[in-house]
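JOB MANIFEST
job_type = single_chain_structure
chain_count = 1
residues = 511
[input]
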Amino acid sequence: MITTIVIAVITFLVGGGLTWLIVRYALRSHYEAEMHKAEVDAEALKKDKLVEIREKYLAQKEAYEKQVQQRNQKLQQTESRLQQREQAINQQKEDLSRKNQEIENVRNELSRQREIIEHKQKELDQITEKQQQLLEQVSGLSVEDAKNQLIESLRDQAKTDAMAYVNEVMDEAKMTANKEAKRIVVQTIQRVATEAAIENSVTVFHIENDEMKGRIIGREGRNIRALEAATGIEVIVDDTPEAIVLSSFDPVRREIARLALHQLVNDGRIHPARIEEVVNKVRKQVEEEIIETGKRTCIDLGINGLHPELVRMVGKMKYRSSYGQNLLQHARETANLCAVMASELGLNPKKARRAGLLHDIGKVPDDEPELPHALLGMKLAEKYKEKPDVCNAIGANHDETEMTSLIAPIVQACDAISGARPGARREVVEAYIKRLNDLEQIALQYPGVIKTYAIQAGRELRVIVGADKIDDKDTERLSYDIAKKIQDEMTYPGQVKITVIRETRAVSYAK
């Protein structure tokens, strides 16, 4: 048993040793094979890298050679340009040397000519001195006395020429100023287009049938009395078919009454309580429309920063009129005229437009104190923080206060242009005819006047005088006297042109 165990152990040991030897040999063979393979791969990789590096080196070498070649070409070109520039400089040097030589020759020639001139001048001075001595002997006057007499004569002549020139310049300046002023006014009027419609003091309300008249009148006229009491207007119901007349001097009241009556007729319920309710509602709507109109007007004219109360007054102008001319249209037209004229004169057009819009603001306040509308408008503008020159332009519109700003006369002129435009304002027929008759009668009072004609709606007065009674100089004086008397005694829009006509007629008859 022991022997068997020992044999087994020895066998195991011998087998393990052999096994270890075999495994070691196999591993060494495998390692040597792998090492050989790695060396082969490394050698191949080394060759590839060398080839790649060589190719890159050749490519870089070729690129560098190209760069060197290009640089050499640029250097050659630069060298060529430098050579050309050097040749040009050398040529300029030669030209400059030649010119210097020519200048030196000219200088020498000038020196020689100067010497000749000095010699001639000395001879001339000697001759002049001899002539002066001879003249003094002949005339009996010294040089100083003759000089003084000549200076006095020239001074008198210069004064005469200067006065004539001054008068000529003044006449030309007057003509030019008058022409330039007319050009600016005409150009301003041409660039502003406006409507020529005028307003009435009554509003005609149309109804569908005469049966509605009875409903509007109400039992014993209570509806009309309620409408008149709520709106402050007069309702005239006459025999005119399908129409009712609303009469009032206040356009705001007429508009409120018209809108209220329109809503009552459409609604069908017409009684005193309903009338008061609708009138109050319409009054609020009209007030909102007034504010909206003022805002829209300011936006259209490009006026910013206006006080809300002034904006409300501008909107209220829509329902006011002056001699039949709508006040808001008149204010907008005046504002545009002021802006154009201020631009032509080199002034601030925005400030002129602002003053033109507000120049009649004193006609529309809720409370109307005993003040001219121009002064009242100036006080309102000052109250609502308007600029001093704008306030002065408003107050000086009708010469109630002194003009202290340049835009004040512009506003006054543009206001007159807008009001004097044909069709802008309406007068009563009797007053219009009376004004024309007064114009003709004023001219007839002067001696030598034969006939007078007021034409162009009273804008021009033509006076015909006898040629045997008045000469040409008196016609100018007569025209001036008539214009002065009309200006002092009459009131009229715009201006009146007085034309005096004097003609001589020779009549013979062939028999």
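[summary]
Confidence is low (pLDDT under 50) at residues 195-200.
Residues 302-426 form a domain with the Hypothetical protein af1432 fold (CATH 1.10.3210.10).
exit_status = 0
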